[in-house]
Amino acid sequence: MNKSRSFLDTTDFYFVICGEKKTQNGEDSYYMDVDDDGAMCFVFDGCGGSGAKIYPEFGRKTGAFVASRAAAEAAWEWKHSLKRGEAEGTFSESLSSSINQKLAVYHGLVRSGSMLRSSITREFPTTLAGIYLRPYKDGNAELADFFWCGDSRCYILTEMGLQQISLDDLPVKDAFRNLKEDAAMQNVISSSGKYVLHNRKLRITLPCVFFSATDGCFGYLKSPMAFERLLLKTLMKSKSIAGWKELLFQSWRKIAGDDFTISMLGAGFGSFQALRTFFSQRLQYLDRNFPAREDMTEDELQQQWDAYRVSYEELCTEEKQ
Q: What CATH class does 7-45+125-320 carry?
């Protein structure tokens, strides 16, 4: 019998970038774990508006700050419950249960009466976007579970370009329009437990870059096309994975008006040079068909988006939700 392949056999790289606008007070968090059995690539964005309440019990940090970190702890505990065979129900049910239990513990540490009570305030609110990857039996693919709640996103990057897997929990599902509209999220994790954790399972053919990102990574760019271009141009300017990571961090530090966090893993390329070669033609295609100009009008951007979204949205249509 052939021994089952290790997940690490085809894994080329993985890293996390986490940037704060306010040092020691960033409301993003993450959980990444990679081993022989698979990988977890999760990000969390504490909701600073509805979670702005400051808690003396937690070092005068906001509820948003506490929530993102509590959810990351819960994801770690969930992963280890899977390895021990203790998780019950579907992945989304067992992960939600882990998060709810963790938030209940944090809620219990708060003095009675110290919470804000209003229609716009949630107790410990945070988004979640996460990917659970395992090796697929044929060795040329990964089995991926994508999870999300709120407006943080799960993506893949392949020869088809950038594709969004998650579907924003916003009134409008159009990723381009959502860059310009400031709508309230319809669904976020909180200690109330009244939320839906979405889950989609896909078999993804390699090579592929998988990543989860908070809105600070993509929300300050003009379009989803610009997001893919940023990823690929920084890659082409880099001489190593460490160099790519640093260029991405510096790019987001310049443009982001919020915390930004990305958890990224690449598999099936074989080497950094192969990764760059693989995406070089894609960048040429992007520049040729979706050129970026400073004087581009909104109508021209909309026309580009109408063409680009055909492949970008292929895996996140509402009927597949």
A: alpha beta
